[in-house]
Amino acid sequence: MRLGIRIFLVYFLFVGLTGYFVLNTVREQIRPGVRQSAEETLVDTANLLAEILHDDVKGGTLGQGRMPDLLRAYGKRQPRADIWGLPKNQVNHRIYVTDAKGIVLLDSSGEAVGQDYSRWNDVYLTLRGEYGARSTRSNPDDPESSVMHVAAPILDEGNIIGVVTVAKPNSSLQPYIDRAEQRLLYLGLGLIGLGLLVGAALSWWLARSLRRLTRYAQAVSEGERMALPHYRGGELGQLAAAVERMRTQLDGKDYVERYVHTLTHELKSPLAAIRGASELLQGPMPDEQRERFAGNIERESARMQQLIERLLNLAQVEQMQTLEQQHQVALAALVDELLVAQSARIESNGLQVRQRVPTGIQLLCEPFLMRQAIGNLLDNALDFTGPGGLLVFELERRGERVALSLYNQGEAIPDYALGRVSERFYSLPRPGSGRKSTGLGLNFVEEVMQLHGGALEVANVEDGVRVRLWLAANRLS
Q1: Whole-angstrom distance between the N-terminal and C-terminal Cα of the chain?
Q2: What is the pLDDT of residue 179?
Q3: Is the dihedral of CA 211, 212, 213, 219 positive or negative?
Q4: What is the largest CA-CA distance in the chain?
Q5: Residues 41, 166: Cα–Cα separation, whole Å
Q6: How many angstroms separate the CA atoms of 405 and 466, rounded?
Q7: pLDDT tier at 232, thresholds 50, 70, 90
Q8: pLDDT exceeds cutoff 50 at 256
Q9: Alpha carbon of 387 to those of 338, 345, 350, 455: distances in Å?
Q10: 53-170 belongs to which CATH class?
Q11: What are phi and psi of 436, to 5 degrees?
Q12: Which of 30, 92, 197, 269 lies 20 to 30 angstroms, CA to CA, from 239?
């Protein structure tokens, strides 16, 4: 199972369980919370009625006064109230009054007048000077039919002369409880869903970051070029930096060993030629031979210098993982500049040059490296083009790719060598002199193209060879 999925499942389990327990706990507090608020209102109402009914209870005129008519009229009222979106079209309070012995003197429902309520907790506790309240089912078989009763004493000079009770059915509070629970459920599910989305996004980001770092490590282990993933600080940034330092140290060690071995091997031949010529020059010989051996020393020294310079350039390119700076370069002007630099060789061999790269085309590249790469191609083409031959620079398009191509008229590359021409130190003898080059030019070009996300292609065509530098079309403007 992938790391991102495992992280998300753990996060999902944590958020789900936390959300469930929190929602369940809050939901369990809604019902008692609403009833507590209602009970507090009943307490105030009962105490207010106790003061209003004091004179009638004391004077024994409760049944003959206006109160029975007022309670009957109260029971018939239709408030037509809209309480936060919930309608209220009838009153729900039941009010009854007992004397000091618990006998009902007045009942707004008209059902219990004359009955003994002294054993009901609301009346019983109040007559004893305690807080009197009870909750009783109107239907013993229906748990939703419970009714809250809250009583208050009617006092006369500190003595309890009666009790007034205000009752309210819990069913009248249920719509408010249901609405609160529904809103809480929607809000809770929404928060859980949002939390899971955040968790999924976090898991995806973390897994994606680790995959990028893994791909980078795999590419490094396989010797491929790849840009170091960029992270803004944190542990991932530190891990990426540590992997890059490890790559640099390991690459540096292997690189030095490989290049020391290569340089030693390639310098053996010119050093042996120079040493042999210098030993011969120490003895007497004709001036003609002396000049020939001195020329050998000069040529071999130049060869060593060229080899060292090209190795240094190649080493610089191979150590680069990405192009740090890129600029727009006028491609036609760059080609013209290189042709002018080689004009002496072109004119001395009577070569024909056709430059077909459109003016105004801008190439996004690292200017120095691209100039070196195209210069190596031109130098290589001049070596293999006979007197009076043809060179053609042009721009080709193929789908989402473009290519700067260079055609040189001359002998085809042998089949056995066609796939190896870009190998390091592999070189074919030049037609004119039979000498080989350092074998680093096309290898350098290939490295530069890889840095630009492109490719080098060498192919035999009719009457010559065509080399293409393939690049993404979006690099041209």
Answers
A1: 45
A2: 80
A3: positive
A4: 159
A5: 10
A6: 7
A7: low
A8: no
A9: 19, 10, 6, 30
A10: alpha beta
A11: -100, 155
A12: 197
pLDDT at 398 over 80: yes
DSSP code at position 30: H
Q: Beta strands 352-355 and 390-398: pairing type?
A: parallel
Q: Are 338 and 371 in contact (CB under 8 A)?
A: yes
| pLDDT tens-place string over residues 44-91 | 999 999 999 998 888 888 877 788 888 888 777 887 887 767 787 778
Closest C-alpha among 371, 365, 314 to residue 342: 371
Tokens of 174: 């249920």
Q: What is the mean pLDDT of residues 255-279?
A: 61
Q: Which residue has the higher pLDDT, 357 or 205?
A: 357
Higher model confidence: residue 257 or residue 227?
227
Is-above-0.90 flag for pTM?
no
93 pLDDT above the threshold of 80: yes
Q: Which CATH number is correct for 250-319, 3.40.50.150, 1.10.287.130, 1.10.150.20, 1.10.10.10?
A: 1.10.287.130
Domain 327-475: top CATH class: alpha beta
Domain locations along the chain: 1-51+173-219, 53-170, 250-319, 327-475
Residue 79 corresponds to which tokens in the numbers above? 């408030």
The pLDDT of residue 252: 46
The two tokens of residue 160 are 């309890």
CB atoms within 10 A of CB 274: 20
118 φ, ψ to 5°? -70, -20
Task: Work out the average pLDDT over 226-251.
Answer: 66
* 395: DSSP letter: E
CA nearest neighbour of 425 among 442, 450, 446: 442
342-353 average pLDDT score: 86
Q: Answer whether 365's CB lies under 8 Å from 475's CB.
A: yes
